[in-house]
Amino acid sequence: MTPATSLFSPVEDDLDLLTENLKNLIGARHPILYAAAEHLFGARGKRVRPAIVLLVSKATIPGHELTPRHRRLAEITEMIHTASLVHDDVVDESDLRRGVPTVHSSFGNRIAVLAGDFLFAQSSWYLANLDNLEVVKLLSQVIMDLAEGEIQQGLNRFSTNLSIEAYLEKSYYKTASLLANSSKAAAVLSDVSPSLTEALYGYGRHIGLAFQIVDDILDFTGSTEELGKPAGSDLKDGNLTAPVLYALEEKPSLEVLIEREFAQPGDLEQAIAFVRSSQGIERSRALAKQHSKSAIACLEELPPSASRQVLVKLADYVLSRLY
């Protein structure tokens, strides 16, 4: 499997610069927030979201030279994503993310909430300074969508009548909206045609959904070491994902275990076994593949370039994580 980081070679130097800039944007005025920022914006993680923004930017700019506004958009995108992770980890009471201690486990809940708020506020300020009302609207929508997704997930815990459509809607709010709207924003800053702008929104939307579905499959097929958290963590928390929803259609006993919230010893292990022995994982793979193909189709109008080639390969990479 090709690692995502090697795919991003056309923007590797730009991503390194982005990481340094993110630490500097927080500034040394707040020592604890700066320590939290260093913890968050270290070299770990794939930086997929800002990489996509930079790739879309390069692919839509004549001469493929990034402008300061495109660079700042990529930084804002990563700030919004990181702020949402900090708050998610507080809500989910997660001690680890990708095997590394979360901000709230290292600095406490109070600092984690403030750090997330600070990052959202900083991203909004830098967003306003781009002086492009359409881009402000697009990224402001993302912040609303992230909150909407978290609320939907909270309200639907252990809900066995959740539909695949509702799952995809929640996945759009929580994951794909940022990729879709930041890709569109990059196209807006490049001043490309409305049809290409919408196509790049579609690329971000479909690749975001494919990413989320694959993550949800790996929750059942990956190891604790790979995931940085125990397998079946989402199911344990009552977050029913595509593999579970499909499995429920053929395993009535699974519904009983979920509805009693795994109250009895062995319930969770039995539920995971039901999912693994069903067609749920295979059907979820097919769903992820469908969105990956749709993402590639959205790039047809984009002129050939090294960056466009990487965007296509990235859609294949999403699926390759399963094998």
Architecture overview:
The protein is an all-alpha fold and 323 residues long. The protein has one domain: Farnesyl Diphosphate Synthase. Helices cover 73% and strands 1% of the residues. The protein is built from 17 helices and two strands. It has helices at residues 4-7, 12-26, 31-40, 48-60, 68-92, 103-107, 109-128, 133-155, 164-190, 194-221, 224-227, 233-236, 242-248, 252-259, 267-277, 280-297, 306-320; strands at residues 96-97, 100-101. A two-stranded antiparallel ribbon has the order 1-2. The longest helix is centred in the middle third of the chain and has 28 residues, at 194-221.
The CATH architecture category equals Orthogonal Bundle
Number of folding domains?
1
Helix content: over 70%
Going by helix content, strand content and strand pairing, the class is: mainly alpha
Note the main sheet. 2 strands, antiparallel
- The CATH homologous superfamily: Farnesyl Diphosphate Synthase
Q: Please identify the top-level CATH class.
A: Mainly Alpha
**Overall 3D geometry?**
globular
Major beta sheet, strand line-up: 1-2
Element string (H = helix, E = strand)? HHHHHEEHHHHHHHHHHHH
Fold-level CATH name: Farnesyl Diphosphate Synthase
Radius of gyration over all CA atoms, rounded: 20 Å
Number of helices: 17
Write down how many β-strands occur, each being a DSSP E stretch of 2 or more residues. 2
What's the assembly state of these chains? single chain
